[in-house]
Write a structure and sequence with these properties.
Layout: E1 2-5, E2 17-19, E3 23-28, E4 33-38, E5 43-48, E6 56-58, E7 69-80, E8 86-90, E9 95-98, E10 104-115, E11 120-133, E12 144-159, E13 168-171, H1 175-182, E14 207-210, E15 227-231, H2 235-248, E16 251-254, E17 259-262, E18 267-269, H3 277-295, H4 306-311, H5 327-334, H6 339-342, E19 352-355, H7 365-369, E20 374-377, E21 413-414, H8 422-430, E22 440-445, H9 451-462, E23 471-475, H10 480-488, E24 493-497, E25 500-501, E26 504-507, E27 510-512, E28 524-527, H11 533-541, E29 546-550, H12 558-568, H13 574-581, E30 590-594, E31 610-618, E32 621-628, E33 639-642, E34 651-653, E35 657-659, H14 666-673, E36 679-682, E37 688-689, H15 695-707
Parallel strand pairs: 13-14, 15-16, 19-20, 19-21, 22-23, 22-24, 24-28, 28-29, 31-36
Antiparallel strand pairs: 1-33, 2-3, 3-4, 4-5, 6-7, 7-12, 8-9, 8-10, 10-11, 11-12, 15-17, 17-18, 25-26, 26-27, 29-30, 31-32, 32-35, 33-34, 36-37
């Protein structure tokens, strides 16, 4: 039912290898052809040819889209692995469809072949007749083949997915030095046109480390966009404007009043009588992202857009006429658009975070800006270090009209609660999510009293065959050595029940300390009993990616953890899993540690994360809506297309809500839900998987809602 759209994203070291620090091209004499490697991501494409090739460097700016490096060679045939979608464009970069399941014969001309994955290849074939074929499956051993009618020059440009930092800026404990460092974070964005609203054009910002002096690597340059953001030299103000400065490529400078300035003298206040700095940044960033996504319809992808059809007729300008204009000129038009016109089309942001006004929290900024997270800045409570609550992250300047600027559909991540840990983000780069049937799940308890309960929960998942079978183990009566072996092993999810003290986990033969293991191999964990925060932090620092820790006596039961596992194995992030499975997180209950948006299981190719809501008018008449979820994998600014069964064919921004145009019957609800396995809430009831819902269950839920019963 879903087709996920994402925009394409982007020195000789030997005679056989060309490239940059982000991508490289290596020719092979024995296998004929070349390997294209995304160095930053560790991903490689094998391009095969009938005979050896000679590689020559080409200018990266010779392509109509951003690439990090390019080479050329001559050949009569190109073979590409079939595990990626392949799209065709003409010499003017106009989209001509794809290759899938049947051969396409094209007359002589110049063509671009584009790979539909996050690490992008653009293959330009010069002045040749071309026959192309892609097998009708993405897991075929048979490659996609492109045959040319004569020996032809071929250029290949590659752009790294760039989902992790490739450079590090050091900065001292000084707000003005921090301004300078933040001014370089936009250097990872591939181009400062409206195309940067695509998540794959926005590379991961450089890392930040706090040290005794400011040091910016020579490879980084400040974006030349003509935009300046002035704020008072305080960490509160600097952190608050960081997402906007990153997205606009702005230089951050000291100023008495927060304001945005253009190089031709225009200024826009970032604090007003109605809105404080954080709310103003939220509003302006959301405005720019949505309107940039309309302006880019005149650029690389001229696909149909729901938001364009709804908004453009009411604008005082034609969005595509702004394409290629300086950001300052675009902002003049954007700021004239009433925010109320845009509110129904603003996407959910993946998360809102709270930082402390201290230098060390700047080390988290690059990871947050990579997701365009919203930033709040609050000092920790004086009487409770490491305290705070996600419910407090909105600040005092959020107005009712800003509810459409929804912060998080999952869990707000709060540094003052210890939720975000830099190590969790770093470990998520090192960890490659596995398929569901490769994922090892362990339910463990320190004593034997809960073993039967754990076995019952585990057995329900061993018996399942959707979305896949997976490896479930139960451990109990653990000694310190046995717990150490579990923690060091390759475990996707660990549920651990047992008493925890400040010294560590109380085992059958003593207290286990995380310091006793060399490296934690567990990816995601859930610790029970109260006061497990310190141990959870230590697990992330020692190798884990994320986890759930508890502050309450009423601990998450194995059945609660089982529901969480059920969501995680479908490829959802920990934050989404906690939200969907019903875990209650808050000041006095529990919280997340590490990188809350990281996944344990790699979702299927093309998987889109969405939630359906069904609201009944009567027993057999229902309204149905779907909300997609922005995440690491499907960032803010990407597009989604729903099948024609749900709505007239059009593309929507990821993170927005789509309502079916007409009410439907119970049978139609089931038909609309059956194409993909996604969570569905029937009249606000706890979620179930959409493919398991029957028409009778829809009617029963409607009757309960109409009767006012549970």
């Amino acid at each position: 039912m879903f087709i996920y759209w994402t925009c394409p994203k982007g020195s000789t070291v030997s005679n056989d290898t060309l490239g940059t620090p982000l991508v490289s091209f290596t020719r092979h004499i024995d296998r004929h052809g070349l390997d294209v490697r995304d160095i930053a991501e560790g991903v490689e494409y094998e391009i095969r040819t009938p005979s050896p090739v000679v590689l020559e460097s080409e200018p990266a700016d010779g392509f109509p889209v951003p690439v990090d490096a390019a080479v050329s060679f001559t050949t009569t045939e190109i073979r590409i692995p079939s595990n990626v979608a392949l799209y065709l464009r003409d010499e003017s970069n106009e989209h001509l469809g794809d290759f899938f399941g049947e051969a396409r014969e094209l007359p002589r001309g110049t063509y671009y072949i584009e790979t539909g994955s996050t690490s992008k290849l653009y293959i330009r074939v010069f002045d040749a007749a071309l026959t192309g074929y892609h097998p009708d499956t993405f897991d075929s051993d048979e490659p996609a083949v492109f045959s040319l009618d004569r020996p032809t020059r071929v250029d290949i440009g590659a752009r790294s997915a760039h989902t992790r930092p490739t450079e590090t800026i050091t900065v001292p404990d000084d707000p003005e030095a921090m301004m300078e460092a933040i001014s370089y974070l936009g250097s990872s964005i591939k181009e400062f046109s409206c195309e940067r609203s695509w998540p794959t054009i926005r590379g991961h910002p450089p890392a930040i480390e706090v040290d005794d002096r400011l040091d910016v690597p020579d490879a980084l340059t400040k974006p030349d966009t003509g935009i300046t953001v002035a704020v008072p030299p305080t960490y509160e103000a600097v952190y608050a404007v960081a997402p906007l400065a990153y997205y606009l490529g702005a230089t951050v400078v000291p100023g008495e009043s927060p304001e945005l300035r253009t190089d031709f003298g225009f200024t826009h206040p970032l604090v007003t009588r109605r809105h404080g700095l954080e709310a103003s940044v939220d509003r302006l960033l959301a405005r720019c992202l949505v309107l940039d996504s309309l302006t880019r319809i005149g650029g690389y992808y001229t696909v149909s857009r729901h938001e364009y059809d709804q908004i453009a007729p009411h604008l005082s300008y034609y969005p595509e006429n702004l394409y290629g204009r300086p950001i300052g000129e675009q902002l003049l038009e954007y700021l004239e658009v009433p925010i109320e016109m845009l509110e129904p089309f603003l996407p959910d942001w993946p998360t809102t975070v709270t930082l402390r006004p201290v230098a060390t929290d700047a080390e988290l900024l690059p990871y947050l800006l990579n997701d365009l997270a919203r930033i709040r800045v609050r000092a920790a409570d004086a009487d409770r270090p490491d305290s705070g609550s996600p419910s407090e992250t909105g600040g005092g300047d959020t107005m009712e009209s800003e509810e459409r600027l929804r912060t998080s559909t999952t869990v707000d991540a709060t540094v003052t609660e210890g939720v975000l840990l830099r190590e969790g983000f770093e470990h998520s780069f090192e960890f490659t999510p596995q398929s569901a049937d490769e994922t090892r799940i362990v339910f463990a308890s320190i004593d034997d009293a809960r073993r039967d309960e754990l076995e019952r929960v585990a057995e329900t998942y061993r018996a399942r065959d959707a979305p896949a079978t997976f490896d479930v183990h139960v451990e109990s009566g653990l000694t310190t050595a046995e717990l150490g072996r579990v923690l060091e092993s390759d475990v996707g999810f660990l549920y651990l029940a047992g008493r925890v003290t400040r010294e560590g986990v109380v085992c059958t033969d003593g207290v286990f300390s995380v310091d006793d293991v060399d490296r934690v191999g567990v990816t995601t964990f859930c610790l029970t009993t109260c006061e497990t925060y310190d141990v959870g932090v230590e697990l992330v620092e020692a190798g884990a990616v994320n986890g759930v820790v508890s502050r309450r006596e009423r601990t998450p039961a194995p059945t609660d953890a089982g529901r969480l596992v059920d969501v995680l194995i479908h490829g959802y992030s920990l934050a989404d899993g906690v939200s969907l499975s019903g875990f209650e997180l808050g000041r006095d209950e529990g919280l997340l540690v590490g990188d809350p948006l990281a996944r344990v299981v790699q979702p299927d190719v093309g998987r889109t994360f969405a939630q359906f809501d069904v609201e009944s008018v009567d027993v057999d008449t229902h309204w149905i809506a779907v909300t997609t979820t922005a995440s690491h994998a499907a960032g803010v600014g990407g597009l989604l297309r729903l099948s024609a069964d749900f709505t007239p064919e059009s593309n929507w921004l990821v993170g927005t809500r789509l309502e079916h145009s007409v009410p439907v019957s119970s049978t139609q609800v089931v038909k609309l839900l059956s194409s993909n396995e996604n969570p569905v809430h029937l009249n606000g009831e706890p979620f179930r998987w959409s493919t398991t819902v029957t028409a009778e269950e829809v009617r029963d839920s409607a009757q309960r809602a109409l009767d006012g019963t549970e």
